[in-house]
User: Fold this.
Amino acid sequence: MSKPVVKVQNLKRYFKQYKKEAGLKGTLKSLFKREHFDIKAVDDISFTIEKGEKVGFIGPNSAGKTTTLKMLSGILYPSDGIIEVLGYKPFKRKKEFLKKIGLVLGQRSQLWWDLPAMEGFVLNKEIYEMNDKTFKTQVEYLSEMLDAKDILDIPVRKLSLGQRMKCELLAALLHKPEVVFLDEPTIGLDIVVQKKIREFFLDLNKKHENTILLTSHYMDDVQELCDRLIIINKGGLVFDGAIDNLIKEYASHKNLKFIFNKKVLKKDLSQYGDVIDYDGAGFSATLSVDRKVHTKIAGDVLAKFPVDDLDVSEVSLEDIIGNIFKS
Amino acid sequence: MTQLMDNIKRYLKLYSLFIKVSIVELMSHRFNLMMSALANIVWTMGQLISLKFLFSKIDTFQGWEFKDMILLLVFSQIYVYLFVIIFFKNFRELPKKLISGELDMILTKPVNRYFILTFKSVSIPQIIPMFVTVIPLAIYGLSGTQNINLLVSLNSIIIFILGFIAIYFVNLILISLSFYIDNAHMFRDLVGTSIENFARIPLGTLHKILRVTMMVILPVAFVSFYPAKLFRDGEIYLEVYLVEICMIVIFYIISKILWDKGLKKYSGVG
Assistant:
């Protein structure tokens, strides 16, 4: 079996913070005495990622996603634990290692604000020691894929958010990284651009077998792009596995949506399960039922009421994850 | 050796790109270029008028004649302009980068972090006033000295360069304090201003404590006083080289320790 591309074992990262009371008195007090405490941003997590895997790294705000991503890309030092990417210790920031990774931080830019994106790419060409031919081919290939050919010579400050993100992706992927870390790459983008970016990464992964680690608050990103999920909350690992397994493990219910050809009363349906959606006219309703008996209940409703159509669906990933965090 | 040459070539190429980008960036703000150049020329003229006024009242200043003082002004100006052109914008923005998390992207680049952090922005507008003011002043200051020869010139340049490197590391140390203290950039601003001001004063006029400070803590004496003194006296001071090299090594080690520890503490921005 080949060595994992990413290996994380009992990884921890604590940040020291201090408390400061509000107001002038608090400010003066904090000048002389500060009460420090540790924030456990990442607390004892372990996982491995194989070559070519597309992994979604999700969790609520302050769960430790970005901190983990930053440790994996060598920006932050871990407080404790083992961390290896492509066999390197990221925090040592070896030149060979940094040439093999690409990082996109949705809320940070690596391009020059006043200059066309192309100027930034040329600088990256020298930084990553690319030859002219590879550089030209890569710019052409990536700009074609991202539909960004016409925007490369426009000053970055004049680009829209979506265009800017395309240029950021180009800058981060020019040097053909083996591992790509994406921290909310679609944040603030419209649905069309989001979709384009997701398709781009799927295509990239298919052609070059890059390993992709993605954090995002958009479940569509995760569902369309990733085949595996790592869920963390309050610095700890909650789930690690395929999306299907997550649904099996955490979705205890299924949704049955009925369309009736005659009016059906809500109280008559409620004996079969929770009525989570009911139209006022009584011609359509959605029941949330135990997944173990959902076929039996569907059969019972079909037998008793004038059903025109039936749709069986899983609870949305968003709801499942939301419930995990709540519990 | 080949590896070293390749590295030098690579970094020179990168620096030429930084210059190119800074020029392109500047062209979109042409008014800034003119105003900045004009302000610097006026500032140097002000310095010259002050000196002229001082020497209308006295013949020498602690043994330094008007032309010697002009030479001192020339070296202090070369230092100030070079520092501003190469480093000022980078050092000014570095604490902000540490606080705002901009350092994140820089740390993932396969290039020396000090290089990219301290050389990336080149203040091109300062090149014009440097040539406009320093060259005529240098010609005037050197016209009165008997000690112009290759050896003195070479020694003067080497002492200046070593002093410049030492000051670079002092700045790097001061900037690294941003990892540990809020608003640490104020220290660098304070030290930067002190260096600029003391660079125009002969070392002998200062109190002993200040004199030692200007040599071994803020090595300002090596970028102005000693290079000018070399032309004035025509003597080579080997001990100066020794002190400079020791200081470069010490400041380098301190800056490296502080940066490495600071980066371990670095938390970026969420």
